[in-house]
Amino acid sequence: MRLLRALSVCRASGRPFSSFRSQEKKQRFFMPIYVLMELERPVLYEKINRRVDEMMVSGLLEEALNLYPLRGLNALQTVGYQELFDFMDGKFSLEEAVENIKQNSRRYAKRQSTWFRKDPHWQAFSPNDLQSFIAFCEAKIDEAG
Given 3-state DSSP classes, what are the helix, strand and coil percentages for the chain, each rounded to the nearest 5? Predict the structure, then answer.
């Protein structure tokens, strides 16, 4: 969608899209520290599964039923709604749809984890390893002077 929007702006204005993004970068008076709290995969997956069950009990199906007429909107092309829309279309049973939500949520979490690991700015820590986290932050603060 962003690419289509950029192309339409270029065609309408006759200017390269980059010409609209020529603002100077503002100087920051702080140094960000990029940290990631990363659970072990089995623990994360169990939390995801439990959260999906909680969402179903809290009314996710009813919410999706109300949004079903709008199912073609980009904002509804997300994990959770899509699987329930498939259930409403008769493609899956409700139990299969819920399992698909769990599976797709786990896949999404894995993609996020992979994305963070590729970026060298982020430093991952176990939520249970507070001492390593504190030592890392203190070292970064010392580095910044």
Answer: 65, 5, 30
